[in-house]
Write a structure and sequence with these properties.
The chain has about 375 residues and is an alpha/beta fold. The chain is about 25% helix and about 20% strand. A hairpin with a 3-residue loop joins strand 5 and strand 6. Helix 1 crosses helix 9 and helix 9 runs antiparallel to helix 10. The longest helix is centred in the N-terminal third of the chain and has 15 residues. The radius of gyration is 22 Å and the shape is globular. The N terminus is likely disordered.
Length: about 375
C-alpha cells in the first residue's frame, strides 16, 4: 500500500458529529430519505445531559399535543413526546437521556459511540474525517456537537478560580453558607434558586438586568418556568446586583476577592460559581466557517458559506436576530438541512416531498424566517 494514501474504514453519504438531540433528530430525517449516514459521538447518546446538575430541569415544558399537530416542545421528531415517555413536564437531564436513547432504539439509528472526531479535512468532492479510531470519508458533514461540553472560561480575569456551572453534579455538594454566583441568565438563576432552597445566602451578579428584562423571545429573556420559581421568599435570600460586570477575581489566603467595573468589591471564603454560559463547539472546526459576532455565517440551508456541503444543526444556528438555541427552535431546521442534501443527491422529488411534508405538517419546518422578526403584541 502507498504510504501516502490514508486507508478508509468506511464511506458514507453523510457523517453526523454528535449524538445529542440535534444529531439524532437530523439523522432520523436522513434515514427516512434513504440517505446513508453515520453518527459519531465521543461519549454516549445524550452524554451532556448526564452532566447537568442533579436538580436542573428543562425550562421549556413538555406536553403531549402531537395528536393536534402541536408536538411536544422538547421532542426531536414529530411522532414522539418526552412528556408521554417520561410522564413529566420539565424533565431532568438524566430523564431526557432516557428519551433520547428510546428514540435512537426505536428508529434503529446508526451510531458509533466513544469515538472522538479530531480533524475534518475538505478534499475535492468529499470530506476526510479523522477520529480517535478510524478515518472516515463522506460527501457531507453535519456538525451537531452542541455547547454544554464547552463552558465559557474567558469572561473575566481569574475566572479559573471559579467552579463553572457545568462542573456541578449536585448543588448539595456546594460548601458554605453564602455563595457568590456570577452571571444571571438561566443557569445563574437556576444556581441561585437551588442554593436558596438549600438554605444558603446568595449574591447574584448580573452583567445585564435579566430579572427586569422582558422579551417574547426566550433566547433573550428569562423563561416563565424560571420566573415562577423567583418568589419573594427566594429574593429575600438573594442579594441581586444588576448591570454589574465582574472584571477580576484574585485569591489570597483562601479569600476570593471579586472586583467589578463599578468599583465594587465582594469577598468570600467560598468558591464562586461561574454562570456566564458556554462557548461554541465550532472551535474544533472553525476553519470551515466564517464568523460574525461569534456566530457562524450560514446560507439559507444552514450550510457553511465558506465550506460547501458542511452543515450545522443545533443551538449555534443563527439567522439575523433569530437564534435557534432551544430544541423546539433548532428542530425546525432538521428537515431543511436533510432536504437540501437529498436534493443535491438527486433523490426523487416524490420521495423528498413525502418525507418533508410530514415535518411541514407537524410544525417541524421553518424556512421563512421573516416571522422571527415579530414581537408578540401581548
Amino acid at each position: 500500500m502507498d504510504k501516502d494514501k490514508v486507508p478508509y474504514e468506511e464511506n458514507y453519504d453523510v457523517i453526523v458529529v454528535g449524538a445529542g438531540p440535534a444529531g439524532l433528530g437530523v439523522a432520523i430525517v436522513l434515514q427516512k430519505l434513504g440517505i446513508d449516514y453515520l453518527i459519531l459521538e465521543k461519549e454516549s447518546i445524550g452524554s451532556t445531559f448526564k452532566k447537568w446538575p442533579e436538580e436542573t430541569r428543562f425550562i421549556s415544558p413538555s406536553f403531549t399535543g402531537n395528536f393536534f399537530k402541536m408536538p411536544d416542545l422538547n421532542a426531536i421528531t414529530p411522532d414522539t413526546s418526552p412528556a408521554f415517555d417520561l410522564l413529566t413536564e420539565h424533565p431532568k437531564g438524566i430523564d431526557y437521556v432516557q428519551y433520547l436513547e428510546g428514540v435512537s432504539k426505536h428508529f434503529g439509528l446508526e451510531i458509533e459511540t466513544n469515538i472522538e472526531v479530531r480533524k475534518i479535512e475538505k478534499q475535492e468532492n468529499s470530506f476526510q474525517i479523522k477520529t480517535s479510531k478510524n478515518t472516515f470519508r463522506s460527501s457531507y458533514v453535519i456538525w451537531a456537537a452542541g455547547e454544554y461540553q464547552f463552558p465559557s472560561t474567558s469572561s473575566f480575569d481569574g475566572d479559573h478560580y471559579c467552579c463553572h456551572y457545568s462542573e456541578i453534579a449536585s448543588f448539595k455538594e456546594i460548601q458554605g453558607p453564602d455563595i457568590i454566583v456570577i452571571g444571571a441568565y438561566e443557569s445563574g438563576f437556576d444556581a441561585a434558586l437551588n442554593l436558596v432552597n438549600l438554605g444558603k445566602k446568595v449574591t447574584l451578579i448580573d452583567s445585564f438586568q435579566f430579572l427586569e428584562f422582558i422579551n417574547s423571545d426566550s433566547s433573550y429573556s428569562l423563561s416563565p418556568f424560571t420566573r415562577d420559581r423567583i418568589d419573594k421568599e427566594a429574593l429575600d435570600s438573594i442579594d441581586y446586583y444588576p448591570e454589574t460586570r465582574v472584571e477580576k477575581i484574585t485569591v489570597l489566603n483562601g479569600t476570593y476577592t471579586i472586583s467589578t467595573d463599578a468599583g465594587q468589591v465582594f469577598k468570600t471564603n467560598h468558591q464562586p460559581i461561574n454562570c456566564t454560559g458556554f462557548d461554541t463547539g465550532l472551535v474544533h472546526v472553525a476553519d470551515h466557517f466564517d464568523f460574525e459576532n461569534n456566530y457562524p455565517l450560514l446560507n439559507e440551508y444552514d450550510e457553511s458559506r465558506k465550506t460547501n456541503n458542511f452543515f450545522l444543526v443545533g443551538p449555534q444556528v443563527k439567522h439575523g436576530t433569530a437564534l435557534f438555541c432551544f430544541i423546539y427552535k433548532y428542530r425546525q431546521r432538521f428537515a431543511i438541512v436533510a432536504e437540501e442534501i437529498a436534493r443535491q443527491m438527486k433523490i426523487s422529488h416524490s420521495e423528498i416531498h413525502r418525507v418533508i411534508n410530514e415535518y411541514k405538517n407537524n410544525n417541524f419546518y421553518l424556512k421563512d424566517l421573516s416571522c422571527c422578526d415579530d414581537e408578540c403584541v401581548c
